[in-house]
Amino acid sequence: MVTGALVVYAVLVLAALAVAAAIALPLRKASPRVFAAIVVVVPVLAFALYRIVGTPAALDGSAAPATAASGEAPSMEEAIAELQAALARDPAQPEGWRLLARAQASLGNREAARDAYMSALEHIPDDPELLLEAAQARAQAAPGNRFDDEALAMLRQALAIEPDNQRAAWFVGVVQRQRGEDAAAVATWEALLPKVDASTATALRTQIDQAREAAGMPPLPADANASPVEAATAEAPVADARVAPGSLRVRVTLADGLAERARLSPDAVVFVIARAAGGPPMPVAVERHAVRDLPLDIVLDDSDSPMPTAKLSSLEEVEVLARISATGSANRSVGDLESAPVRVRLPAITPVALDIAP
């Protein structure tokens, strides 16, 4: 059993090394220190996040979970510190800053993630995907997840460079709704509507109708071309305007009295994880919170993706769960409390409810 787990880990690390080398290759000659740091931090990040979910055997309870004391897992925090040190010595490396931002976001360090994205933008200010990620990071680090003027300018710049960027258009509409510019949000989202797939269009039409109602406008005319499934779900409730196509709203609750019975510290760490349904246990999106924050109402999206090659929006079905770590580390251990995993097809019409119970 141990040998099998080691083989799984070895394969994971080798794959992560290949990804890391591909990402960092342009930096090898220009900045060998940053190249070396990225090659270290990507496998460590992959390895540590793999341990968040556990080995395949641990998922079905057939093996004892690994513990932080086993010494098997390297420290993600140390790897991040190494990347920070390398970037301090040679800061003109946007891909290093982008990787650092994603790593910080995976640890729940939203302000640090925002700052790392802003550093990346200093070097490549015209990358639409980077502009979008940075704008989201600014909102996630702000009270109420509100987009400020600089974040809005980033979204508009991304759209100017890539007019068909659906997520950027969606978030421009979100900003307009946040600011009470409901008619402008209607115009933005109605222009987006013909460009999205049928499932996303169902959710988007409901959001448009909500914006129309707030603006004193009638609802959209019924779509004569809608399929029976779309028509049946057209009135279903959807997540609020924070949730972009390819994103997932999650509500995490704790069973009554469990915090007292389990003597949970308010500082105990809560991981909220989305992973490919029926696939490897590597998270495609993960957020870290504290027990004191429960109940949680959060949105998982591509900015929560710990790895550059695995994004939530690229999947059709995911499995979502929440875990309270007994040790406070990412390593799965005895005494952890978990919700039952929930399978969800994307885009999701309703929020995913996760209840952590004994």
Automatic annotation (TrEMBL):
UniProt domain Cytochrome c-type biogenesis protein H Ig-like: residue ranges: 248-356
First and last residues of every TPR repeat: 94-127
Annotated Pfam families: Ig_CycH, TPR_CcmH_CycH
Residues that span the membrane, as ranges: 6-27, 34-53
Domain Cytochrome c-type biogenesis protein H TPR: 78-199
Coiled-coil portions: none
UniProt entry keywords in alphabetical sequence: Cytochrome c-type biogenesis, Membrane, Repeat, TPR repeat, Transmembrane, Transmembrane helix
SUPFAM superfamilies: TPR-like (SSF48452)
Name of the molecule in the record: Tetratricopeptide repeat protein
Organism of origin: Luteimonas kalidii
Upper lineage: Bacteria, Pseudomonadati, Pseudomonadota, Gammaproteobacteria, Lysobacterales
